[in-house]
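I had to read the description of the data format several times before I understood it. In essence, backbone conformation is discretised, so a fold becomes a row of integers matching the chain in length. I therefore recommend that a typical entry be quoted early in the introduction. For illustration, here is how one protein appears when written out as sequence plus structure tokens.

***
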Amino acid sequence: MFSMMKFSLVLFAFTSTTCINPFAPGWDEETDKSICPNLNEIDGVLCNFRNAYLFKDTTIYGTLISPNFNFIYRDYDRGVDVLWGRDDEMRTTYGLFQSAAALSLIWNNEVSSSGDSVRQTIVRSFNLTITFNPGDIVRIDGYANLTFERESFLSPWKIVRWRDESNF
């Protein structure tokens, strides 16, 4: 009886310190990359922007875009700047998310920044890879000229203007 009890205690001690739950997934090193700072930091907005593209999630994306948002890009064929608002941005982004098999957005170096505690303008380079299928992959490298605003120092940042400065 004593030896059985001793064996049970040893077995319990061993299993309680080295137990692996077969139903719990292992830690994914990529998970750390998807955890973002809060939206009171511009890095948090950019991280969530990247994750919205990675997960093709318009709900995440929509929280980052101001109600008075404007997107501007250069139509080189016509020689004009094209501008659209938040509704068109959400519709266009939804279409991109639906048609792409995978998206990868990498934010690179910050080229310039200016502003204060409630309005910031940042120009940052990026690499966007859009995979429609294995034979149709589009790579876009360029600069995003982004303006962020918030109501107060404690409020979350929102993107109010995005001027796409890529040559696509």
In short: The longest strand covers residues 119-133. Strands lie at 65-75, 80-85, 102-115, 119-133, 136-149, 158-164. Residues 2-18 form the longest helix (17 residues). The CA atoms of residues 72 and 156 lie 23 Å apart.
